Amino acid sequence: MQKLNLFVTGAVLGLALVVAGAAGARPQATTIRVAAQMTAANETPTPKGDVANARGTFTATVTKSGTGATIAWRLEFSGLTGNAIAAHIHVAPRGQPGPVRVPLCAPCTSGVTGTATIDAAVLEAIQTDRAYVNVHTPTNPAGEIRDQISTVASIRTVLNSGQERPKPKGKRRGSGVFTATVTKSGASGEITWRLTFKQLSGRAVAAHIHRGARGRTGPVVVSLCAPCRSGARGTATLSPAVLAALEAGTAYVNVHTVRNPAGEIRGQIRAVALTIS
User: Fold this and answer.
1) Is the Cβ–Cβ distance between 30 and 63 less than 8 Å?
2) Same domain flag for 116 and 168
3) Which residue, of 46, 188, 207, 242, is most buried by count of CB atoms within 10 Å of its CB?
4) Which residues are CB-contacts of 23 (< 8 A; sequence separation ≥ 6)?
């Protein structure tokens, strides 16, 4: 009987450790979205000719596959000095030229799409701000427009009083919607957001992103507005710690009022796919 008790105790403890570890673990994404906004100002070396209106957009979905990934991409551009003779993904830090690692098209037309397989080294470079895409022309065979590739993700969170902790005072009829785009470049990031709300108990004195699991309170990690009006929007820098919380699903948005200074409405942000392991 003593051996049985020891076995049961050990099994329960082991299960508890597994559950605790899973609760704090970051979800492993298998697909991420990436993008680049190309301009001549980002190109190295500096391009020749009239490139003031030269620009382009690169968007792609990266999906884990074996030891690397597949990338399904789309390329658009305008205002170039001539025909686009080629476009590639290169590997190098910002401000430095680097070798071609993924040929995209040659020649290229705006709106072209394609797929490619990338190895683990290129996948890591994309996720650590060390990969860029550029477009080449006869006038600028080394590249006319360029941008570093960043991970992007969209957020949409519904806020209500039922999610708020502690429970707010009053009739609790307030609601809101928080939408945002997160851009991750290496270890840091940026969030561009919009917040709408209605039927609060009074004026919205502040709104923040907090770090905290569902049903728990946590510290402010991003200040959004103070005071706030419905339809407010803005941009904020995200630290590595905040990016980690977003990926883990342990961040929430709430709106504070005079009657409910700890928060009147709240919405948990679902885990945001920013990294492929």
Assistant:
1) yes
2) no
3) 207
4) 213
Are 209 and 236 in the same domain?
yes
164 three-state secondary structure: coil
Q: Which domain holds residue 258?
A: 152-269
Q: Are residues 230 and 166 in the same domain?
A: yes
Q: Is 172 exposed, middle or buried (0-12, 13-18, 19+ CB in 10 A)?
A: middle
Q: For 138, list phi and psi in degrees, rounded to 5.
A: -60, -40
Domain end marker among 148, 183, 217: 148
Q: Where are the alpha helices (H) located in 189-269, listed in sequence order?
A: 240-248
The pTM for the full model equals 0.88
Measured CA angle at 270 (ends 26, 174), to 5 deg: 145
Question: What tokens appear for 159 in the block?
Answer: 């806020």
pLDDT tens-place string over residues 2-37? 443 433 334 333 433 333 333 445 566 999 999 999
**Whether residue 164 sits in one domain with residue 130:** no
